[in-house]
Each structure stands twice: as structure tokens, then as C-alpha cells.
Amino acid sequence: MAKKLWEKGIKTDQFIEEFTVGKDRELDIELARHDVRGTIAHITMLESVGLLEKSELEVLIRELENIQEQIIAKGKFQIEDGVEDVHSQIELMLTKKLGDVGKKIHSGRSRNDQVLVDIRIFLREQLEEIRSLTNDLFSALIDQAGTYKDVLMPGYTHTQAAMPSSFGLWFSAYAESLVDDVEILNGAYKVVNRNPLGSAAGYGSSFPLNRRMTSDLLGFESMVYNSVYAQMGRGKTEQVVASALANLASTLNKLAADVCLYNSQNFQFLKLPDELTTGSSIMPHKKNPDVFELLRAKTNVLMALPNQIMMTLSNLTSGYHRDFQLLKELLFPAIKEMKSCLKIASYSVSKIEPVKDILDDPKYKLIFSVEAVNELVVKGIPFREAYQQVAKQIEDGSFVPPKELNHTHEGSIGNLMLEEIQERMEKVLNIE
Asked: In this structure, is residue 2 part of a structural domain?
């Protein structure tokens, strides 16, 4: 069994070891590529300040690149039994291959700042992918909005039919919501994109480390300047990302809830193709919107993520705590789930087919009451008087709905501002 980096000759009880390691070895595979990248940057800096010979740096980088190839080739890189984490595994592999020179890579750093930098590089990559997937869904919504911009539907307040809306307005509402979601993802990215490497165990190092150099090598916007805060950022960083994911999940959740409602026989506002529905074991007529029901449920779970992380961090003082280990168990699967939800949402939205002529149903005639009031106002009748006239017509049953709509202002049925919404998304996607 491999010796642990911190081992001092005292054997750890197997039961205790299993409890403390938890799922770390399994989840650390996600960090392996990033750990190699962080290590190459670190040892390049060590050579520049005289803590490694140039020849040692060359052989270390060559072997780290070999390890990186094993990681990229799925299934070839494994964390061996008895090895705690990915950091220990990579150092072990270097030492087995290169001997004592492999043991020099840890100078000036701790596993604390190793995992900090690995997670930040990982989160940076994941946020970029989530932004891209969000844009895919955005494009599907904008396309649908343009296709069905003239198909009317009821708009609701207090779950009561209120005013005329359109599927163009409905689809593009969710598109614009995603723009704000990407703005918030950008904010999370900005928090993530700062380098903690060199903070070591949280109090820096007596070695003459060049943290600006590693920040540049790893593509960070800047470093986390204060070493104590670099450690305090563990958890805070995850919570910021979780909040951004939860915000995005709330948009998907509301969209899924709408689809489930509008697809029901009581509403019949839209149709879902057979591939997006499932049947009943006893009711031959059923076509259940399982995809959107599961999307609704999964995003509900994602919206709870910030609270889970916040409670994990509750009552922790400054400095490192083993509690942080659990954050990966919360956040990593959530990121995977978020990406899955975005992919299925993009595919499913593009398949939705709105029903036409919904507002021809007599039960929706009263949603044109505001149109009738506005027509009277245009003729010179004060708004409150026009309101009372139409209310009286509704009360005595003489109301005849005007079906000709003339909505022209920005963001209305007749002026969806799709190009402007697209321009906003392009702008926020281009922010580095």
C-alpha cells in the first residue's frame, strides 16, 4: 500500500481512513488534468527562482505530459488503492519513474492550495461549457419565438386568464431571462478566475515564490492576494458558482412548469412529439410530459444547492477545515446535472409545437377587455370612465371583444425586440 504524503509512521485505522477519504478518490479524477497543469506551472516557477535545476524541470515536465496523456485517454489513469487523492497519485507516479526529483514538486505549496487551484481551473472550464450550453438553449428559444411570433395565447396573472399574449412573447421571455443568467455566470467566473496557488496551507511560504508568474501561466486574471483569504475562498467560491447555477435552474424550472401545464388537456396550448412523452401502463390515451416533469424536479434540486453548501460551511473559522472536502460531493454532480438539463431543454424546446387559434374559444373573450378600454381612451374618453363602461358591459353580458390587436411598443406582442435580445446575449457572451 502506498505511503501517504503526510504519514509519520503511525498506521491509520482502515475504518477511519474510509470515512475520512469518502468519495474524494472518485471525484478527484475530475481534477486530474488540472492538477497536472497546476503542477507544471508551479515547477516552472520553482525553476525560475532557483528551487529546481533546468534539467530537473525538463524531465519533470516530460513525465507530467505523459501522465496527462494517460488522463486524457479515458480509463488509463487511476488513483491506486491506499492513495488518498489525485495530488498524492501524481506525485507517487513521478517518484516511481524519476526517483527523488519527483519529490521536489511539492516545495512551496500544500495540498490545500493544490486543490484550490485545481478546483478553480475546473470550475472555470465548467462555467465556460455551461455558458455555451445556455446559449444553445437561448438560440432554440429565439428561433421558436420568431417562428410563432404571430400565434396568440392567453397571458395570466394570479393564474387567471388576463390579457392576450403570444408564443413569440412567451418563448422570448425565457430567452431574455437566460441573458441575465449568463450575466450572473460571468460574475461567478470572475470570482473563480483568480489564482490561489502559492498560498500553501494558508499562510504563504518562506520560499521566494513568484505568484504572478503562476497566475500568468495558468491564465488567471489575477491572484488571490491574501494567503489567508485564499483558504477562506474555499467554499465561498463554490457557493458563488452554486448560486449562479441555481439562478439558471430557476429559469429552466419555470419553463418546464409552463410546458407541463400548457400541454395538459385542460389547457391544450401546445403539443409535444411522441419522443418527448411516455405512456401509462393502464391508460392507453396517456402521453405524459416526463421530460419536462423531470426537468422541473431536477432544477428544483439544483435550486437547493446554495443552501446545502452554505450549511456545510456554517460555523467554520478561517483556515482550512476537512469539512471542505464535502463540497466536491455537492457541487461536482450538480454541475453534471446542470449540463444535462441544458442539453435536454435545448433539444425539447425546439420540438414544441404551439396550438393555433386558442383565443377563438369563447372562454377567453374577456381577456380582450383591456383592448376595449384602450380603444375608448384613444377616442378621447378618460381611462377611468372607459374602464367603468367596459366593466358594465362585462357585468350585463353585452361585451363584444375587439379581436384586432395593435401592440407596437418595445417588448410587446407586435414588437418582440428579438434582435436586441440577441445582441444582449452576444455582448454578455463576449465578456472575458
From this structure: no
